[in-house]
Amino acid sequence: MPFIAFAHKRLNGWRWWSACALWVAAVCSASYTSASAAQTNTEKTSTEQAAVEVYIMRHALAPGFGDPYNIKLGDCSTQRNLSDAGRAQATAAGEWLRSQGLSAANALVLSSPWCRTLETAELLQLGSVRSTTALSSFFQKGSQSSTMAALSGLLANIASKQPSNTKAVLVTHQVVIAALTGRGVSSGEIMRIGLARDGSFERIIERHVP
């Protein structure tokens, strides 16, 4: 009887974890589908003037789901990385951003410290890239509350100190963008968002998928 009870408990546990995994996969799939269907390449969602505008994007295509259990920042061999298609997508994203008037002379490019975000940011070819944990993923490790608090501080700093001719480009992860905007985002997708003077998020102005 103890063995049966133990086996039943373990089975229920496996079912619970399986259900969680399926739920997460369904949510991510729905987010990807809705984000992709919401626009054909580029979609302007607002014509209202924002006090401050920032570009925020999800890293380009990186096959897989999450990261290996032994992930170490700074060691790309322990992380999920961009595919060749992802590198091409990041290059195309940079071309689109330059068509919007961004350049190495006026862009402030910030990235999460994950290899796939740093490589995406570098392939934009908009000048030097600065790494910040305020853009880190909290999907498997880390704290959503602490990351979003750090991001709020970063956005407030950008809103208050960024010169009017400087355009910030933030390269981050699906979970961070979803937590900030309440919207799903596909790989490589760029959102131009409007901020209030205090750096708080107001609206999505434009969405582009390279």
Describe the SSE topology.
Elements: H1 2-38, E1 42-44, E2 52-58, H2 84-99, E3 107-111, H3 115-123, E4 129-131, H4 144-161, E5 167-172, H5 174-181, E6 190-195, E7 201-208
Parallel strand pairs: 2-5, 3-4, 3-5
Antiparallel strand pairs: 1-7, 2-6, 6-7
Helix pairs in contact: 2-3
Task: Write a structural description.
The chain has 210 residues and is α/β, with parallel strands linked by helices. It has five helices and seven strands; from the N terminus they run αββαβαβαβαββ. It has a seven-stranded mixed sheet with strand order 1-7-6-2-5-3-4. Strand 3, helix 3 and strand 4 form a beta-alpha-beta unit. It is globular and about 45 Å long.
Number of helices: 5
Helix content: 40-55%
Any idea what the shape is? globular
Mean pLDDT across all residues, rounded? 84
> What Rg is obtained from the alpha carbons, in whole angstroms?
19 Å
Terminal Cα span: 59 Å
- N-to-C series of helices and strands: HEEHEHEHEHEE
Main beta-sheet strand count, sense and barrel state: 7 strands, mixed
